[in-house]
Specification:
Layout lengths: L1 H22 L7 H20 L4 H5 L5 H8 L1 H10 L4 H16 L20 E3 L14 E4 L8 E4 L1 E3 L9 H14 L2 E3 L7 H5 L3 E6 L15 H8 L4 E7 L10 E3 L6 H7 L7 E3 L9 H14 L5 E5 L4 H14 L5 E5 L10 H6 L4 H14 L7 E5 L5 H9 L4 E4 L1 H6 L22 H4 L4 H25 L13 E4 L5 E3 H4 L7 H4 L7 H7 L13
Helix pairs in contact: 1-2, 6-18, 7-18, 11-12, 12-14, 15-18
């Protein structure tokens, strides 16, 4: 309650000072000027409280205008940082600015060329054609569903990545889902279960089943097949995703303290009130690669043939190969695999995990893609990619390196108003995105932000279509590593397929290629266990 008072204190003071100034007019007519000033600010603050477009102003009337003042001088701040060789911040601001403009249907063309220093090492670009193509329909789709799937799903190639209700506010979840419904793309539920706010918009859902089995669990936290079947039967649920790990904190479990569990969270997660909600670091429904394939088969049967896959951040490379060998031995393959890069975000994670655990997306995606090619399974399994994929270039890059589609959490959070205040873990998000404080969540107006979600998706795919056409391609799926170039530290140009080549189909089965250390790990991998029986990962 104290925080609420502090947020509205400037508004209240403006009202008080306006009244005091009016009362002081008999002392001096000059007090009319103060009365007019504070009266204007008080009226402005009242308007801030009710206007639907700016979440910061709804939560911080009057005071929130300081943010827009600083944004007005941002170009000068950016130039100072560039000249000081601190270029990380300008690039992140540019990235966020692109999202805001696309979400608001504002033209995102800019004068004076690139702000990136193209002569620096690490600069990346796509090749273009002298004979570009025009692509009118940019509603790019990918069919997800292997030979054992009876209800394949035609997914957009750009979808909302996993973010749970509880991590995000009710208004944020509802805005995302309504935007997904309007734009015809999918919304991953996150491991926190399907809440009433996921269902409110009617958008397509990817039901994420984590180690806590929220929404399909017994009282002891184990998996409950009957509850899962009920949830999976919902027509809104289009795919099932088993979460093995997430990029921001791979190998790390989690706990939602009892004090933070509201009746709505308890309903979505199917957990009791007054008890800490535990997400174990690993699954209890399976402990070996072969058992994992059995679990995938079980979920596919219980969901009546909907696409079933799993998400992970690549860790021990041999463990992923153990899973692939289990696919070959059992004949059971997932319909999809989502590779989550360690650069992915989270509301809270230990600093060491956020910075130094897990494989970055590009390396993880390349490894998984080539391992499936080497095992002769790539044509049966679609690959999604997630991890800081915000722009059309980001999507084109991961498609070139082997992905079939991309997921984004960060981009769609920007679209609903996230300003990267980095207060997600405090419950004091200034724009109502990452909070369970209803007085703060009210700042996020669902209809306005849902429209921005749909706008951002549509305009990003439009930009992707323009880049695809400029490359002389008909569809973004045509991007290959040789379309992707980068500059190395010596300022030598390197073609993508020199660094991230597609390995030959079936090379692991033939045991005839030891490039990049794939084969030595493949020979050590066993389908019946994750643990190594000799050294090496």
């Amino acid at each position: 309650m104290t925080m609420i008072y502090s947020r509205y204190l400037p508004l209240a003071l403006c009202g008080v000072f306006a009244l005091v100034s009016v009362a002081a007019v008999p002392v001096s007519p000059l007090f009319w000027l103060l009365a007019a000033l504070f009266g204007y600010l008080f009226g402005l603050g009242i308007y801030d409280l009710v206007q639907p477009r700016h979440s910061v102003l709804r939560n911080y009337p009057v005071l929130g205008h300081m943010r827009f003042l600083f944004e007005g001088i941002r170009p000068e701040i950016r130039q100072y940082l560039i000249e000081s060789d601190q270029d990380e911040e300008p690039f992140s601001r540019d990235e966020r600015s692109i999202v805001y403009q696309r979400a608001k249907n504002v033209e995102d063309a800019r004068p004076f060329g690139t702000r990136m220093r193209v002569y620096d090492s690490g600069y990346q670009w796509l090749t273009h054609s002298i004979r570009p193509k025009h692509i009118a329909d940019t509603n790019f789709r990918v069919q997800i569903g292997g030979p054992d799937c009876t209800q394949p799903y035609s997914a957009s190639i750009y979808n909302i990545s996993a973010m749970s209700f509880g991590a995000l506010s009710s208004n944020a979840i509802e805005a995302l889902n309504r935007g997904a419904a309007a734009g015809g793309f999918a919304h991953d539920t996150g491991e926190g279960g399907i809440s009433r706010y996921h269902r409110a918009g009617g958008g397509d859902l990817i039901y994420e089943v984590g180690s806590g089995y929220f929404g399909c669990r017994n009282h002891d936290g184990s998996f409950n097949p009957e509850k899962f079947a009920v949830v999976a039967a919902d027509p809104q649920v289009k795919m099932i995703e088993i979460k093995l790990s997430q990029g921001a904190k791979p190998g790390h479990g989690g706990m939602l303290p009892a004090a933070k569990i509201s009746p709505e969270i308890a309903e979505a997660r199917d957990v009791p009130m007054g008890v800490d909600c535990i997400s174990p670091a690993s699954h209890s429904a399976f402990s070996t690669p072969l058992e994992m394939m059995g679990f995938i088969r079980q979920l596919r049967e219980l969901s009546d043939g909907k696409p079933v896959g799993f998400k992970l951040c690549i860790g021990h490379r041999r463990e992923f190969m153990c899973i692939v060998k289990a696919m070959l031995e059992t004949g059971v393959t997932p319909d999809f695999i989502v590779i989550d890069g360690k650069e992915g975000g989270t509301g809270a994670a230990p600093l060491e995990f956020a910075n130094h655990m897990g494989m970055p997306l590009v390396e993880g995606l390349t490894f998984a893609h080539n391992t499936l090619r080497g095992a002769g399974l790539r044509d049966r399994i679609k690959i999604g990619a997630s991890g800081k994929l915000v722009t059309a270039f980001d999507i084109a890059k991961v498609l070139a390196l082997g992905a079939d589609w991309a997921n984004s959490a960060r981009g769609f959070m920007f679209a609903i108003g996230c300003i990267q205040a980095q207060s997600c873990h405090t419950n004091r998000c200034p724009v109502g995105v990452a909070t369970q404080d209803k007085s703060r969540a009210r700042a996020l107006v669902v209809p306005d932000k849902a429209a921005r979600v749909a706008n951002f998706h549509r305009n990003t795919l439009k930009a992707l279509g323009e880049m695809t056409g400029a490359a002389g391609l008909e569809h973004p799926g045509g991007f290959l590593p040789h379309h992707f170039l980068m500059r190395e530290k010596d300022r030598d140009m390197v073609v993508g397929d020199e660094v991230y080549p597609y390995m030959p189909e079936g090379f692991l089965l033939r045991e005839d290629d030891e490039r990049f250390g794939y084969l030595k790990r493949w020979l050590r991998a066993r389908p019946d266990r994750f643990e190594p029986y000799d050294s090496g990962v």
